[in-house]
Amino acid sequence: MDIYRPYVLDTAITFETDVPTAGQMAERIDKALATHEWLVLEADDNVIGYAYAQQFNPRAAYLWSVETSVYLTQHRRGAGGGRMLYAELLHRLGERGFRRAFAGIAQPNEASNALHAAFGFHPAGHYQRVGWKLGAWHDVAWWQLDLLGPDDEVDPPRPIAT
């Protein structure tokens, strides 16, 4: 909660306007862990960041596609933690057979754009003036990464190994 709260209240990085309760966050984590991934980064016995994947779209044909996100405590941004989380998240998703990863990035956000470009994501679309937050309209740039290359394998992604 402490990590996500400032993003909700002080930025347009997320389009949520109400901070989720601890129960709501627990539900999100459980849902992500049931089918995708939710990773945390700790330092000095404190959670300082997390990254997760969720179904890109609930329709069946999107089963192979995920939407990804990464969040760090404000004072830890730019120190490599997000890069470490994202590298592990994308690796796990590819190993399990997910084909495409998408990230919706509220604009402007040069740091997130650069992070995604560094991982090989490429721009896939741009929604103009799609979200109203903090007294202004914001665009969302969609970025896409092919996790496993262009082959046509259609086996469904594998469950999380326990």
UniProtKB/TrEMBL annotation:
Coiled-coil intervals, chain numbering: none
Keywords on record: Acyltransferase, Transferase
Signal peptide extent: none
InterPro entries in alphabetical order: Acyl_CoA_acyltransferase, GNAT_dom
Pfam families the UniProt entry points to: Acetyltransf_4 (PF13420)
Membrane spanning stretches: none
Secreted as UniProt keyword: no
Highest taxon listed in the record's lineage: Bacteria
Record keyword Transferase present: yes
Molecular function as annotated in GO: acyltransferase activity, transferring groups other than amino-acyl groups
Residue stretches making up the N-acetyltransferase domain: 1-146
Name of the protein this chain belongs to: N-acetyltransferase
Lineage, uppermost ranks: Bacteria, Bacillati, Actinomycetota, Actinomycetes, Mycobacteriales
